[in-house]
Every structure is written in C-alpha cells, then in structure tokens.
Model the fold of this input.
Amino acid sequence: MATPRRALVLVDVQQQYFGGIFEIQYPPHEESLPRVAAAIDTATAAGMPIAVIQHTAGEGAPVFAPGSPEFELHPEVESRRTGEWKSVVKQYGSVYAGTDLTDWLRQNDVDTVTLVGYMTNNCILGSAVEAEAIGFTTEVLSDATGAINLANDAGFVDAKTVHTTLLTLLNSNWAQVGTTDAWISAVNAQEALQGSDLGSSAMAGAERAS
Done:
C-alpha cells in the first residue's frame, strides 16, 4: 500500500466554539483541544502541509463575524501558526465549497486529508462527504473533533450521541476514523489510518442487533 500523502486541515478551531450556544460539548473542548494541538505538532514535525480554516457568517453577523473575538482562532492554534500554513475563510459547511483548498491540496500532491476541529455535526461531516467526489481520502480524528447538543422539530440528540453516531457513519464509508494517538502512530510509520467499510459495518451492526 502506498504511503499516504497527507495534509492536516484545522477546521474552525475558533473562539466561537468555546462558549455560548455553540460551545463544544462532546468530547468537551478541554479534552479535544489538546488533541488538536498534538496533531499540529506531529504534522509540523513531519513536514506535513497544514491548512487552517475559519468560518464566516459575514460582517456584523451575530456569530462568526470577521473582526469579532469569536471569529479568531483559539490561542493554542494561533500560537503554532506559521507563514507556511494555508489560510482559508469559508462560508459553507464544507472546507472545499467556494474555496481554493482543493487546488492547494493538489498543488501539494496531497491524496489524504486529516480533519480536526469543529463541529462533527456540521463542517467535519460536510467536508468528509464532499471529499469523496473530489477524490481525497479523509481521516477524522475522533478525539480532536467535537459536537453539540441538538434539538428541533425532528427530535433531540445529546452531543455524545451526535458525535458517536456521525463518526460511526463516517467510518463506514466516507472516512477513516481513529484517535489522535493512532493517527500519530500511523504518521510515524508512514501508513494509512485503519478504518472500516460499509459491508463490514453492516455485518457487524447486524450481529450486534441480533
């Protein structure tokens, strides 16, 4: 198997997710943020391309407004940032939609994109799904991402269920999901992160349900 040509993509590790209605609940950001930092340090040591993404809802918006404190990157990310990082501001859920990230990844000969950041239930999900059609393999680090509680006319789901369900879904088809430690070991060994597939997941699901 060929060695993955990875890029680390830091998805919206912005102050907006560390307080208020969008505060990450599971895994709690006190746990996931150090894992994001560990991924950055590993990628930097390996000479891996790094892209940092910030979401905008437009000037003057109640959330994700450029120029507001909540729009800024968390200091744990900002303090590690170098001039070699690719900076992207996006307005859609997917990191690829309406941005030049795809072109930058291809210019860097990347075939595998590692996603960390927020939220599992929005931008991580949207980015992993869109990557299939673009042609990138996606890795998602389960303990370096996070979700929030959700409720609407369709029902209520707590953050742990949201996070676990969506990562199980992604690992069945659209991504290779693993912990940051497992990913670091894979990077050091120049190997792919182990994931599942739809057939194996369906079979295991049928066995668990019976």
Summary: The longest strand covers residues 137-146. DSSP finds seven helices and eight strands in the chain.
